[in-house]
Amino acid sequence: xxxxxxxxxxxxxxxxxxxxxxxxxxxxxxxxxxxxxxxxxxxxxxxxxxxxxxxxxxxxxxxxxxxxxxxxxxxxxxxxxxxxxxxxxxxxxxxxxxxxxxxxxxxxxxxxxxxxxxxxxxxxxxxxxxxxxxxx
Length: 136
What we know:
Layout: E1 2-7, E2 9-13, E3 17-21, E4 23-29, E5 35-42, E6 49-51, H1 53-58, E7 67-72, E8 78-90, E9 93-102, E10 110-111, E11 121-125, E12 130-135
């Protein structure tokens, strides 16, 4: 059994003060075949991994060649996204995953469940302040 753990990130919230937020680092394969790392908030409520527009450009892909759609959140607002299926790596595990790139920069990078969590059991350990991905 393989495990990949990521420490929570210490941040400040105007609502609750100091807070530790779960994060994870994944790697996406760019058009030139090189891997590029992204550290994302590990959001168990996010349906799909979401990155800003610049991440798509930085990977060498054209934003609008992805499948267009919209994502929403607790504010009921909708953000236009373009979904690309990319080679993805977490730890030593490589697989295809659908990644949504927002039409804007003004979004937090979110680690979503679609395609990625099919491969792992995910444990949020608030006491130890780490997120662990376990390969069954």
